[in-house]
User: What shape does this take?
Amino acid sequence: MKKIIIFIGPPGSGKGTQAKRLAQKYGYGHISTGDLLRELETRTDVEPEEAEALKEMKKGKLVPDWLIYRLAFKAAEANLNAGKGVVFDGAVRTKAQAEMYQEYFKGKGLQSEAVTIEITLSDDEAYSRLTKRRVCKQCGEIVSIVDQHYDNCPRCGGELILRADDAEEAIKKRIQTQGNAALLPIREYYQNLGVLKVINGGQPIEVVEKEVEETIQ
Ligand code: AMP
Assistant: This one.
């Protein structure tokens, strides 16, 4: 099995859910830059330039690349140096980032260990999913309120809240900046490298999970 698995896809495509499941199953490190940024926000030792950069996130825009590299490489380093695999979740959102990660893997002699999985979803479907999404304040579980109403987190009973960037205006902005149009150059980059696998994210979670597993074996 490959050591480095990179998930790309529009917001709401389910890449976070799949990345988490995969990492847990195989003991890989789960590197979600969104989670790392949200964690940084809660820290008291956040640097002024970092705090400034984090403001972009609330508006649904991309944060600057330097902050992504600072957080993602640090997280990857610990895992890769310990011989563990890693799953990147939302960590690549521009072609420049894709190239920078590739350089990083190359520097470690791991470029042939990286595979990219695109979870596809239309922008309309992404919008519909995101407006019906809540997150547990306690355990971070993502809950969809499309089919079922939940008062509390079905996993731990914690309070369900709307993420700041899941407010309607921020969702529109995120789809504009991170949706299918924005993904095109990234998809093309990985396609040219010959490492891109594509899975239909409109399918039930378990079906996507099975296809992800088949892809990386
Ligand atoms: P996520 O939880 O993956 O949906 O990410 C939440 C927000 O964090 C995004 O809307 C961006 O503002 C920011 N973010 C996460 N990953 C990246 C990245 N690789 N590059 C730039 N911004 C990012």
Notes: The chain has one domain: 4-122+178-216.
